[in-house]
Write a structure and sequence with these properties.
The complex is a heterodimer of chains A (259) and B (524).
Chain A lengths: L5 E12 L2 E12 L3 E5 L6 H9 L6 E6 L2 E2 L5 H5 L1 E4 L11 H11 L4 H14 L14 H13 L5 E5 L7 H16 L3 E5 L3 H7 L2 E6 L3 E7 L1 H6 L2 E3 L2 E3 L2 H9 L10
Parallel strand pairs in A: 3-8, 3-9, 6-7, 7-8
Antiparallel strand pairs in A: 1-2, 1-4, 4-5, 9-10, 11-12
Chain B lengths: L2 H17 L4 H36 L2 H23 L9 H4 L6 H13 L2 H20 L4 H30 L4 H25 L1 H11 L3 H10 L3 H26 L18 H6 L7 H12 L2 H21 L6 H10 L9 H4 L12 H4 L5 H17 L1 H11 L6 H28 L16 H24 L13 H33 L4
The chains are: A alpha/beta (259), B mainly alpha (524).
């Protein structure tokens, strides 16, 4: 069982696609009420891990516990407590924004009155009231806002956001950050993957960094960056999350002299 | 003109085709398609083109035969391509080509060069070349003139298909587009039936029609193949002018800015949709998902076009398959043609239910509900839409059926339609799971179904149409009103098959999840 303080607990998670290893023996605990950043270079297994955590993919081995319960793709009760903004956004493009959000709300079991109220409030708050346009006609940023609204419409306890800030304008990012902070203040948990390290640094209180194939190389409290101005690791001092990330993932700047 | 880059793009197109064989299903598909194309090519070339050439020479009416064969090929290639979508794949869109260092003119040439090297068009060319070879070998006609005429005719056929395709695409994006297309299709469907009695009554009219047809590409090609000197030059000139005109029209149409259908809603109608009221009949558990699928179908241009087209298509098939004799044959044709209305409209999406959903597919597994609900709900929506066409078809048939009306002659085609409805949508559940293919929801033309989906649609359509014809020769009593009850067991079996498919496919769906996610999200 997950300790009462953990919202998510991953134990020895392995995901294989045929002979290819996507996630290799990942173990991780995400405390309740935390804003958790899950970072890694492209192809390191972040989205695959989120897929396993949300029931889109079946782990090859290992276990996932959400809010103290063993999670599988059939765990309907746990899914009701989770909100997900997938990498692909998961939109039904022929629908209008209000139809899409209304459909999602009903699928999460919201009643007619609650559905109408929450859809109207979300559309207004996220400035998605442009009429006569289907989701297919929305800009990328607008579509991200709709996907975010779909993830929170049923007030989930755990929120999974796969690269939520990319393509959204600064005002939208500010609004989302404000909502996410309020979300965690209420004791709920947010699990974010992002490549915008500055945002993660300011927003998250804990971070895990993985490398290919889904191997955990570091996890810890990054509020020390704000408090002490640096993170100590391996006898070295890192003054930003980016510096630590590049050190851990071995990413280097190539010197393309011809460029 | 950057021919090197265009050549590289063509090579890339075939590399992409070859890349599909990396998966097991791809290998099977390539083998079957390759085999079928090869067999078809040989059969059509030898039996069709060459045979027609020999008959033309032996009959002593080479030009008339060439006119008939080339016109038939031309019309079938154009309409068959538009309706079934073969040979209409764009491969690379203009937007995709913009990333390469090509000018607008070069992009136009590259796109259509890639379009015309489609295997489907090679088949048409093979047939036409067969005719030229037949005329050359067994007659004394010029191979050079024939080859030039065939190449120009081939180009005209491709260009006309594109022009009609782009025009319909643009028309369907407008508010009244569906209605215009429906009227057009109905006119074209009924034209042969209306013109034939007129021509019979007035033989002089036929000469007038033929005189006008001299200025069409197939007649021009026939003149170039079977004459020399001025008449051949006139024929070649006619086709060349058509090719230039069609290219110009295509350029104009492709440059025209796309018009998007706008549906402005007021807040009053925001929540009160008739679709949700219809969906409510499926109960609170299914209603939201059925409502979603009804919207998904009804907002799709391709569905609307095929759906509206299905009734005139059934009428066209009935009257054309049953026109040679009176009474009984018309009834036989109706037994086979009327069931087509039950599934042709929904066919594209029903056999590949998630192929056009795109990234939204994952939602069905994120929701705290059984994913099978979405599979069944989508199928119910398709069934509902298909079933809606059966009563008007029956009424129309009652109106045109041989009189005095025998209720059994109405009952039998209706029961066949019910059989087709359940059978097709049952098959659609399985093809959606085991033959998914990522498609473009907004694409109005082109065949983007998987191999298994194509087999299901084309197979059932041909099965419906020709089974009564086969029975007519093998067990005639079975298709007479006295044996009306014979339509009941197949309908009952189809219902049982459908119920079993609903249960079986729903159970199999979660296990197919990862594979389908990869296909639908474009990662496979």
């Amino acid at each position: 069982m997950t300790p009462a303080t953990d919202a998510i607990r991953i134990t020895n998670l392995v995901k294989r696609y045929g002979d290819s290893l996507a996630v290799g023996n990942l173990s991780l605990a995400v405390p309740k009420g935390s804003m958790f950043g899950f970072l890694g270079p492209n192809g390191s297994g972040k989205s695959t891990t989120i897929g396993c955590l949300t029931g889109l993919l079946d782990p090859s081995s290992g276990t996932v516990e959400i809010m103290g319960g063993r999670f599988t793709a059939e765990s309907a009760d746990l899914k009701r407590r989770m909100g997900v903004m997938p990498e692909t956004l998961g939109l039904f493009e022929p629908l209008y924004a209000h139809e899409f959000l209304g459909f999602v709300a009903r699928m999460y079991g919201l009643g007619e009155a609650d559905t109408r109220l929450r859809v109207s409030e979300l559309l207004a708050a996220l400035e998605l009231t442009e009429s006569g346009k289907t989701l297919a006609e929305y800009s990328t940023g607008m579509r991200k806002r709709v996907a975010f609204a779909a993830a929170v419409i049923h007030s989930p306890d755990v929120l999974f956001l796969d690269e939520p800030f990319e393509s959204i304008d600064p005002a939208g990012v500010a609004l989302m950050k404000q909502w996410l902070r309020r979300f965690t203040e209420q004791g709920r948990t947010v699990f974010i993957t992002s490549h915008v390290l500055e945002t993660v640094e300011r927003l998250c209180d804990r971070v895990a960094i993985i490398t290919k194939p889904g191997k955990l190389v570091w996890q810890g409290d990054i509020t020390v960056l704000a408090n002490d101005g640096a993170i100590q690791y391996d006898g070295q001092t890192f003054e930003s999350l980016e510096a630590l990330f590049l050190h851990l993932t071995g990413e280097k700047y190539a010197d393309l002299h011809w460029l | 003109m950057n021919w090197k880059l265009i050549g590289d793009l063509i090579r890339l197109r075939y590399k992409l085709m070859w890349a599909k064989t990396r998966s097991r299903n791809g290998k099977i598909a390539l083998f079957v398609i390759g085999y079928l194309l090869f067999a078809l090519l040989v059969a059509l070339l030898s039996l069709g083109g060459l045979g027609a050439g020999i008959v033309a020479i032996q009959s002593g009416k080479a030009e008339r035969m060439a006119q008939v064969v080339l016109s038939g090929l031309f019309v079938n290639a154009v309409f068959g391509t538009i309706l079934l979508g073969f040979g209409m794949s764009a491969v690379f869109s203009d937007t995709e080509l913009r990333r390469y260092p090509l000018h607008e003119r070069e992009r136009f040439v590259a796109r259509h060069f890639l379009g015309i090297v489609d295997p489907f068009w090679f088949l048409i060319l093979a047939l036409e070349i067969g005719l030229v070879v037949g005329l050359y070998v067994y007659g004394t006609y010029s191979l050079l003139n024939g080859a030039a005429a065939v190449l120009l005719l081939f180009l005209c056929g491709y260009l006309l298909t594109r022009v009609v395709g782009v025009w319909i695409d643009q028309l369907m994006a407008t508010r009244s587009g569906s209605m215009v297309v429906l009227l057009l299709v109905m006119t074209l469907s009924l034209a042969p039936g209306t013109l034939t009695p007129l021509v019979r009554k007035n033989p002089g009219m036929l000469h007038q029609i033929v005189a006008v047809l001299r200025y069409t590409p197939p007649f021009g090609a026939a003149a170039a193949m079977t004459h020399s000197g001025g008449q051949a030059a006139f024929g070649l000139g006619t086709i060349a002018i058509w090719a230039i005109l069609l290219t110009a029209v295509l350029l104009v149409l492709e440059r025209r800015p796309a018009e998007r259908q706008r549906v402005v809603r007021n807040s009053g109608s925001l929540w009160d949709s008739p679709l949700d009221r219809v969906a409510a009949i499926f109960g609170p558990r299914m209603a939201p998902t059925v409502g979603f699928w009804l919207r998904f179908y009804l907002r799709n241009n391709r569905f609307r076009m095929l759906y509206l087209f299905s009734l005139p298509l059934a009428a066209f098939l009935t009257f054309n398959m049953g026109r040679r004799e009176a009474g009984g044959t018309l009834f036989t044709a109706a037994l086979g043609a009327l069931p087509v209305v039950a599934f042709i409209g929904t066919s594209r999406i029903a056999v590949n239910q998630y192929g056009y959903v795109g990234g939204g597919f994952c939602r069905f597994f994120l929701f705290p509900t059984d994913p099978g609900v979405s599979l069944r709900a989508g199928n119910y929506a398709a069934m509902l839409l298909g079933a809606c066409w059966i009563p008007p078809t029956a009424i129309l048939w009652a109106f045109f059926a041989p009189h005095p009306i025998d209720w059994r002659m109405i009952f039998m085609p209706v029961m066949n339609a019910v059989t087709a409805l359940f059978l097709f949508h049952g098959v659609g559940l399985w093809t959606s799971l085991y033959g998914p293919r990522r498609g473009n929801y907004d694409k109005s033309l082109g065949n983007d179904m998987s191999l298994i989906g194509n087999i299901a649609v084309v197979g059932l359509m041909l099965g419906c149409m020709f089974l009564p014809m086969v029975l007519r020769f093998t067990w005639r009593a079975a298709i007479t009103p006295d044996f009306w009850w014979l339509t009941l067991p197949p309908a009952a079996l189809a219902v049982v098959f459908y119920a079993a498919s609903l249960r079986g496919a729903s159970a199999a769906f979660p296990a197919r999840r990862e594979r389908m996610l990869a296909v639908v999200e474009g990662k496979a």
